[in-house]
Each structure stands twice: as structure tokens, then as C-alpha cells.
Design goal:
This protein is about 65% helix and about 5% strand. By secondary structure, it is mainly alpha-helical. It has a single domain, classed as Four Helix Bundle (Hemerythrin (Met), subunit A) (Up-down Bundle), CATH 1.20.120. A two-stranded antiparallel ribbon has the order 1-2. Helix 1 runs antiparallel to helix 5 and helix 2 packs parallel to helix 5.
């Protein structure tokens, strides 16, 4: 597999299992991060890694749901805009969309890309990923 290729899960169960594995891994990485002043993580490298992995867990869970709805693997979303478009089509998607936006902003943009280290910001993003997995696992 080329470095740029992503591993596509075969089905919803595999995608959810992988999403849970990624989220567990992100939490383990984050648990090693020292917190200063009760508010910020001391090492942005650790928080970037954990945030990136947790965000990918959310996308995997969405991929799993889409596969279970008959979306072919080669038609799965490849950008946040496509993921948001797909979520908009899921019945009763308001809570799911709110969690995706929070995971995207807090984990992907603020923590991963910009090196944000706010403990509450990152914890809120991780809670959103947990909720996405919970909603889509049903």
C-alpha cells in the first residue's frame, strides 16, 4: 500500500472496531501528556498526535455507517466538506453534525494543525468522537 492510500474498512463492524481502537490509542497517548496549571498540556507534539488519531476515529465511524448504507468504498468521502454533506443526509443528524463540527474544529484544526494545548478543548473534542461512535454504532 502506498503511503497516500487509506485503508478502507470492509464493513461497518470493522470500521467501528477500528474507530474504537484509534480512539483508545489517542487516549493512551494523551494520558502521557503532562498538564500545566491545570489548564494546558505541556507538550504540543503529544497533543497533536493524540488529536489527529482521535479525529480519524470519527471519520472511520462515519465511513462504517456509509458502508452499511450501501455506499461503495471508492465513493466514501475524502474531505471534511464531503463528510459534512454525507452527515446531512443521515436522518436525525443534528447531534451527529454538532459532534463532527466539534471534533473537526477542536481536534483537527485547533489541536492538530495549530498546536492548541487547551485541556478542556481537547477533552471536548474527544467526547464528540465518543458520541459519534456511539450514535453510529447502533
Amino acid at each position: 500500500m502506498k503511503k497516500s492510500e487509506r485503508k478502507i474498512p470492509k464493513n461497518k463492524e470493522e470500521a467501528i472496531a477500528e474507530a474504537k481502537r484509534f480512539l483508545k490509542n489517542a487516549k493512551e497517548i494523551l494520558s502521557k501528556a503532562e498538564i500545566e496549571y491545570g489548564r494546558i498540556y505541556k507538550d504540543p507534539k503529544i497533543t497533536r498526535e493524540a488529536a489527529g488519531i482521535a479525529y480519524l476515529a470519527a471519520l472511520m465511524a462515519i465511513d462504517g455507517y456509509l458502508l452499511s448504507m450501501g455506499v461503495p468504498p471508492n465513493k466514501l468521502p475524502t474531505s471534511i466538506e464531503e463528510y459534512m454533506g454525507a452527515v446531512k443526509k443521515i436522518p436525525r443528524n443534528g447531534k451527529l453534525m454538532a459532534n463532527l463540527i466539534t471534533a473537526y474544529q477542536n481536534l483537527h484544526i485547533l489541536a492538530y494543525y495549530r498546536g492548541g494545548v487547551g485541556v478542556q478543548m481537547i477533552k471536548e473534542g474527544i467526547k464528540s468522537v465518543e458520541e459519534i461512535i456511539r450514535i453510529l454504532e447502533k
